[in-house]
From TrEMBL:
Pfam families: ABM (PF03992). Signal peptide: none annotated. The lineage of its organism: Bacteria, Pseudomonadati, Bacteroidota, Cytophagia, Cytophagales. Gene3D superfamilies: 3.30.70.100. PROSITE patterns: ABM (PS51725). This is ABM domain-containing protein. Transmembrane segments: none annotated. InterPro entries: ABM_dom, Dimeric_a/b-barrel, Heme-degrading_MO. Residues 2-91 form the ABM domain.
Length: 99
């Protein structure tokens, strides 16, 4: 299993609107070959800080999705006017250990 973990912080108090956008997302990734699931979290001490974990059967499936127009289309639901805190965006990739 391959996991993509990303994080960002909303800088302009649009955290609630961003949270609602995730709740109402179009689920485009759900149909991608190799996709298992996605989880979205907000930090307890900062509700404007978001963490996304997407789970994939393998890294190749993730790369195909990431390079697709559906990936870019999936971001169309981002609320207008959202600004991200400088240097708050990062991504890490993981391989699952064990069964």
């Amino acid at each position: 299993m391959f996991i993509s973990l990303s994080s960002f912080t909303v800088a302009n108090d649009m955290g609630q609107a961003t949270k609602e956008a995730f709740i109402n997302r179009p689920h485009l990734v759900d149909k991608a070959p190799g996709f298992i699931r996605m989880e979205v979290f907000t930090a307890h001490e900062n509700p404007n800080e978001f963490w996304l974990m997407s789970y994939w059967e393998n890294e190749e499936s993730f790369k195909v999705w990431y390079d697709s127009h559906q990936y870019h289309d999936s971001h169309s639901g981002i609320p207008k006017g959202v600004k991200l805190a400088p240097k708050s965006v990062w991504v890490k990739y993981f391989n699952h250990v064990g069964d």
